[in-house]
Amino acid sequence: MSGDHGLNRLWANITEVNRQIALLTSAVTQLRTNLKSASDLINLPKTMEELQKSVATLGSTVTSVHHDVETLQTAAEEQRKRVEDLQKDLVQSPLEDLNSTVMLYVRQSDQRLHNMEATAFNLSQRVAALESAHPTSTKEDAAGLVNATHWSNESHTEAAESLKPEIREQLQLIHMLTNAPDSDKEERDDAVTSPPPLDKKKPRSLRRRQRRGLLLPRTFTLQDLEEVFRQTVQDLDGTLSRQQVERHLGRVQSLQDYDTDGDDRYSLAELKPLLGV
């Protein structure tokens, strides 16, 4: 607003300068025209005095114009600073807000990771304490715990693989009995209290029949198993490696018992007993 006012004053002063110059020119012209007699010479000092006043007025007007120009420059500088401050507010403030949001997200992520690590550490401590307190029974409990938490903590699955096949057979039998109806439990009490002696040299087919109905870590149907073969080897007559089986079906206890030909690969027919088919 001050800039517009200064500009208006500048134009007014320039107009006044032009008017004064026009008056001065007119006076000089008139002086030349009328300077013909002694009477004109008598009036010459008065005319010169008026001319000096006009020159003084012109100088004052020029000074005022200069002052107005300086005022206009000052107003323009202030306007430029205001524009810079506005640009800074429009750009820097959102950037600061964005940085604050990013830092908050990073802190929250670090806190979540810390909590997950603490939970995993506490779980490991509890498993270690159980194993030290009950060396035999806690191995069986650890096997079930490892199968349940396989996808969240890969390191705990090492314990399940290291268990002996005989202990895992007893654990699987106990699991089947606890999930069976009450009538079946009564009929199988004798099998729990006095399990048959384990023979490491039993035929592979007999051991596979004993494990028929083994529960997988996840629920699978025959169609699901066939779809795994189609996606992995594009052929139902193909075979899967142990790693491929565990990646799609989860870890299976004593998976090698289902390898009838001993090639460490598994066909659809060899994996069907896992589903009770």
Automatic annotation (TrEMBL):
InterPro entries: EFCAB14
Superkingdom of source: Eukaryota
Record region (Disordered): 178-210
Listed Basic and acidic residues bias regions: 182-191
Sequence ranges of Basic residues compositional bias: 201-210
PANTHER family in the record: EF-HAND CALCIUM-BINDING DOMAIN-CONTAINING PROTEIN 14, PROTEIN KIAA0494
Full protein name: EF-hand calcium-binding domain-containing protein 14
